[in-house]
Amino acid sequence: MSPVLNNKDIIRLLEKNPPIVEGLLDIEKQLQPSGIDLTVQKVASFSSSGAIGYENKERILSDTAPLSFSSSGAINLATGCYLITYNEIVHLPQNIMALGLPRSSLLRCGVNIHTAVWDAGYSGRSQSLLVIYNPLGFLLHRNAKVLQLIFCQLSHPVEQGYTGIFQGENI
């Protein structure tokens, strides 16, 4: 298994151009022993169905409708699924991929975040699925730290990194 990068490795990669993650709100609060916490910029609800098949031409992304934070900077979310966009922009080199896991406090509130793999070579402001399972809902604050991004070094750099439709998303 390839090594998971620790906070010293991450700091070294934050100093590169481009940094492995840019737009951190507060590095001291977001840097963890084995990852970086990502924070919420936007929340949207789903407003249409979607589709996926073997061929990308069969893919139809669901439409979304943005939700607004209150004047106090929070949003009260009912049970259901939401698309969240992060503040931070991730820039992965050809020899590093990332996995995202929800912060444990979310799980203790009946909330989860589902993510896909951040492939080597990906660059963008990512989105994830926020699922509120708690039947009483959940109060989410703008800029909340919700996901820990964990970086794994590949055994060898890839010749061609991620080239899908989400390359450069939301920048």
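the 2nd protein, sequnce then structure:
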Amino acid sequence: MTHIIRPIEIQDLPQAYGLLNDLVRHENIGNPLKLTLEHMEQELFAPNADWDGLVAAKDTEIIGICFYSFANTSRPMNSTPLIYIDDLYVHPKYRRQNIAKNLLKEITKIARQSHISRIELWCVKTNSHGQNFYQKIGAKKLEHIDVFRLNVDK
């Protein structure tokens, strides 16, 4: 099967949004998707957008997504900012065809072009397939950190 990896375009949003909904169901952590399609468009394409995305496309079908941000966490302990992968998902029908690996290869190219030496992502603890995939491609699980969230009332 032939697919291409490319930056997300505005016409990809409905299909990409559908894949994000599939991802939320797949992770089964009880949180519905709070992002609306309209907000997704703003986050990716507005003048002050700070979110980026890649898609894997087969003809006109979007079969995989990778959304990422540039971040500056743990900067005192590292020499560069990082690329943080928010979401990486491939439609189940197209798995085991190197699509996720190809999306990550493209992220690696972006990191090199931006002189960034770190790519980080979070993986739900119950997602053993995701954890196995990341370890298989050489990603290291960070043992020295737990993530905490402090919610701020609006």
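The domain at 4-136 is CATH 3.40.630.30 (Aminopeptidase). Strands lie at 4-7, 52-58, 61-71, 82-90, 119-121.
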